[in-house]
Amino acid sequence: MSGTSVISKVFWPAHACTPRMRPGFIIGWNVRSFTACVAAVVSDVELSDLEAALSTFAADTHTAFAQMSKVCAVPPIVLGVFTGRGGKRAGGKAGVPEMFKSEAVTEKKQSANLWITIEMLDNYMPSLSSIYCCGFHYPHVPTEIIFYHQPNPTHLQYLSLEPLVLDVSPDVQPAEKPPQQGGQQQQQANERDVTTLRNMQRVMSHSRKVTGGGGGKEDAGDMEIVLNQINTSYYLEKGVSALLRRARRQRRRPFSDVLFDFLSALLGRLLLWCARVLWSPLLRPALVHPIMLVLFVVRFVAEVALFLLNVRLPKWAMNGVAIKDLSTAAQQVDLRLQQACYWPWQYMLLRRRNWANMATTRAQYISMWLVANDIIIGVAVGSFLINNSTYVAASLHYYLDHYMVDSLESMIDWLMGWPAGLKLNSELDKFLGELFLWLIRMWTVCMASLRPITPTLIGLIGLSGVCGASMIFSLASDLIAFMTLHVYWFYMVAARIFNWQLTILFSLFNLFQGKKRNMLRHRIDSCDYDLDQLLLGTILFTLLTFLFPTIIVYYLTFATVKPCWCYFPPSPNGDTARLPESLSSVCHYAAIQGPREAAWYVRA
After folding, report:
1. Are the C-beta atoms of residues 127 and 144 closer than 8 Å to each other?
2. How far apart are CA 379 and CA 462, in angstroms?
3. How many CA atoms within 13 Å lie on the side-chain side of 152?
4. Strands (E), 2-42
């Protein structure tokens, strides 16, 4: 390494390190000074034809490359030549193909801002053999060759400094730090992303550490530009190759065929111009305006439904919960209506955005595919439910009768004796046991009238599969919640009695301490009680204390049973239970990012 203060960086595609690579011209971008991003090596072409193809391709506004090239900072150019492996001459130098000795290549080397010559070593690794800048040769320049796997944008592969955010709402800002909470898989994914980002930043700042120079902000800016160029390299390579193949075919074709193609293209443009002239004054009002009217009506109905679903009940009814919180199906309808209102904006964003934020663009596309996957799975599950509605209904009633009726009756009969050797209050134990058994018998009679129409309900739930698998699971959860409503009643009765008794015991305990609760100041103050008050409090406290074990046994029993069910309606205190994660996560599949391996580098 010489004492020069410059260092060159060359980003090289990994698929170009194969024995099949032939000598050719290197195309890509000159990022800054001696930093270059190579997109491809083009063989069997003249320099003038390649430059013409690059100009034509970069100027075409109808290709995907035209949108992505806006964030590449500089246009693509011919960076130099790739000599391949070749043979060794007597002097020990690699043999240079004759096509690189032409006058056009020599003039380009003298006038280009950057002209590099790269040869292939015996281990199929590229090596920078010479570098020219404005005609001056820079010998013994330290070089970093950084390899990258070329992402395929058609497969939603890309490299980005920003993590993928699936929340595509316009108000969401990208997080600066990875989340500190989450599952083990999420934590491992965050660690991999942080490691990849750290490695990429270390690659870009390596030359600054070697030479002792500054430029941290410039390195960070170069990293974003280089990643955008790498993401665009696929379109550049495929597009230039297609233009060159088309140009070769044009040369081989007779003049009559070329003239025919020219006239056909001219006729097509004329017809397109006529269609545009007729579209605006005649066809557009007749087609677009009715469609816009229908969309407006649909959007209005969706907004009204969203408003009704989010209306809160009065405080005396379910403690003021929203209507959508009464059912998981209502929550799913609320979500789908929000998506329906959001999709037009999302579609226009996908059609018009300039690809400046690759992570956000891919998240927009992936979020739409998540809904499509949900609908596909929903149609499959719905078809199964429709074709097997009788069997599913019979199985559902069998398991509900076994676990929700017979097992509960056996458990209550066990509690009415001496459960686990506990001697409960006989009168209170008998009263509570008979109360719960009466509720079970009443609910069994109610469910008997529902049994004949259960297959029809299962079929209707299957038809809802056109709205997605999440809608099927939501309706199934509501159906099971309704069929197990008596279990929720048991829990609420036991919880209410337990809460009342515990509150009274706490108040009587304050009475023994000579204190009472000040409702105005929300605190406990000292108070003097009469003898009659203390005597009555002692009697009530003793009575409730002896009854408390019986109450707590029933409460703990049903409080233990409660988490076993999939879903419970909202409680009167305002708490709303929800579906378990396995059901609610049906629309939240793990998004697959682009290649995680960002880059590795070799010191030349």
Report:
1. no
2. 8
3. 3
4. 8-13, 24-32, 35-42
What range does the domain containing 180 cover? Answer: 8-251+598-603
* pLDDT at 388 (0 to 100): 94
Give me the number of domains the chain comprises.
2
Spatial distance between the Cα atoms of 385 and 377, rounded to a whole number of angstroms: 12
Interatomic CA distance for residues 335 and 340, integer angstroms: 9
Task: Quote the pLDDT of residue 385.
Answer: 94
Residue 67 predicted with pLDDT over 70:
no
Cβ of 421: how many Cβ atoms within 10 Å? 5
Claim to verify: residue 57 and residue 203 sit in the same structural domain: yes
Helix (H) or strand (E) holding 120: strand 115-120
In a domain, 93, yes or no: yes
The CA radius of gyration of the chain, in Å to the nearest whole number, is: 37
Has residue 555 been placed in a domain?
A: yes
The answer to whether residue 297 sits within a structural domain is no
pLDDT class for 198, splitting at 50, 70, 90?
Answer: low
User: HSE on the CB side for 54, CA within 13 Å?
Assistant: 22
The closest of 159, 142, 141 to 150, measured between CA atoms, is 159
Task: Specify the DSSP element, H or E, that contains 203.
Answer: helix 184-204
CA angle 536, 539, 540 (to 5 degrees): 85
Percentage above 90 pLDDT, the chain = 15
Q: What is the pLDDT of residues 363-415, one digit of tens each?
A: 666 777 787 888 899 999 999 999 999 999 999 999 999 988 898 899 888 88
Query: Which of 241, 247, 68 is CA-nearest to residue 153?
Result: 68
E strand or H helix that includes residue 587: none
Residue 35's beta-bridge partner residues? 9, 32
Confidence class for position 208, pLDDT limits 50, 70, 90: very low
* 71 and 213 part of one domain: yes
- With the CA atoms of 69, 71, 77 and 78 taken in that order, what torsion angle do they form, in degrees rounded to the nearest 10? -100
